[in-house]
Amino acid sequence: MTRLPDDALLDLVQRRTLRYFWDFGHPVSGMARERSAGDYGYDVGETVTTGGTGFGIMALIAGAERGFLPRRDVIARIGRIVDFLGRAPRYQGGFAHWMNGTSGATVAFSAKDDGGDIVETAFLMMGLLTARQWLGPGPLATAIDALWHAVNWAAYCPAPDRLMWHWTDRGDWADALPITGYHEALVAFVLGMASPIHPINVLAYEKGWKTSSTFENGKTFYGIRLPLGPDYGGPLFFTHYSFLGLDPRGLTDRHADYFEQNRAHALIHHAYAQANPKGFKGYGPAWGLTACDGDKGYNAFSPTNDLGVIAPTAAIASLPYTPAESLAALRHYHEHLGDRLWGEYGLRDSFNETIGWVAPGHLAIDQGPIVGMVENARSGLLWRLFMSAPEIAPALARMGFARAMPSV
Fold first, then answer.
1. Which of 14, 81, 229, 339 is the most exposed place for a label (fewest CB within 10 A)?
2. What is the C-alpha separation between 214 and 3, in angstroms, rounded?
């Protein structure tokens, strides 16, 4: 394919990926569909995703600010989503992971995950608070506040030092999954602490989140020190999901500088692909392992769980941390694999060159970070908006974070 200037290439990937949320958004709810293709035991056309919708709202805002989408139409779409959410089932104010995009009925994520999901709710609220800050005062911002204030974060804590991922009407915490260790759910604690109505106890963060063998690390991989997380960092979405809104620049605590943490994680993945210890085809120019569809099904891929599957979102959404390496990967996907990878809604979710497999479609939670994190690398827009919410800075301070204002 034709070699494009850097800005034109970034425009292209943002524009085409936006189609997932704009053209393929659910026609009734406006929410993001979970995925665009595949047989996964649920109605792909009707199943919408809570967290993916939060990411999608942020993507739409970036699209409006870039002039890719009409601002008034984006506002109308956000209004449709908010209205739908106001009528959808809630569990202590939290939303299910999946729901039916027409009726709002809960679609079970698994046999026992059929109620509220506080992490998915956090990703949604991150997007909605970003929208509230973008919109300014008015009826839609007021409606967003009603959803935000209704989330009973404390109800997801059976004890002050434990935040649980799930809540059900059964009141059974046995399968509720404690949120602990270092991974994608950091923003759930930030928003739980920030809630003006139903905040969590700081012990849930200090003792629940941090008391895990996978919180502190401090080891070196490929000559790169990793402060936090599992060995080799885990899947790269750890550096994307919470940090679509939470600005890691200048964000520190006694454990880490969070921008350097995310940069180290991405660089380790890049170095792993160059080393390519399992000898998979295509590694090197293609890099980055994360949660995505694979030829053997959906999986959370990482250097310690590597089956040869690369997702474009992994490197592209790491652009704020590894600009040269991420841009090189995007160029490779566009110029060398483009005809195979470009789909109707941007780059397809994933591929395995070793066996010649390409995912048939796209996945909301992978599409959203492409648009949002590319925008943060280019302008810092979503970081500025989310961090401008007045609830956020006091919550971070209570959690022991210090924040030096970024220079750009």
1. 339
2. 42
Torsional class of 234: left (φ above 0), alpha (ψ -120 to 50), beta (otherwise)? left
Mind listing the pLDDT tens digit of every residue in the chain (408 residues)? 678 999 999 999 999 999 999 999 999 999 999 999 877 778 889 999 999 999 999 999 999 999 999 999 999 999 999 999 999 999 999 999 999 999 999 999 887 788 999 999 999 999 999 999 999 999 999 999 999 999 999 999 999 999 999 998 876 766 678 999 999 999 999 999 999 999 999 999 999 999 999 999 999 999 999 999 999 999 999 999 999 999 999 999 999 999 999 999 999 999 999 999 999 999 999 999 999 999 999 999 999 999 999 999 999 999 999 999 999 999 999 999 989 999 999 999 999 999 999 999 999 999 999 999 999 999 999 999 999 999 999 999 999 999 987 655
In sequence order, the β-bridge partners of residue 160 are none
| CATH number, domain with residue 357 | 1.50.10.140
Residue 295 covered by a domain: yes
Query: What one-character-per-residue DSSP string does 82-146 give?
Result: HHHHHHS--BTTB--SEEETTT--EE-SBTTB-SEEHHHHHHHHHHHHHHHHHH-SSHHHHHHHH
Domain extent, residue 270, equals 6-402
How many domains does one find in the chain? Answer: 1
Six-digit token string for 42: 């649920």
The tokens describing 407, both together, are: 């220079």
C-alpha to C-alpha distance for 371 and 291, rounded to whole angstroms? 17
Domain presence at residue 408: no
Please report whether residue 1 resides in a domain: no
Amino acid at 362: H
Amino acid at 375: E
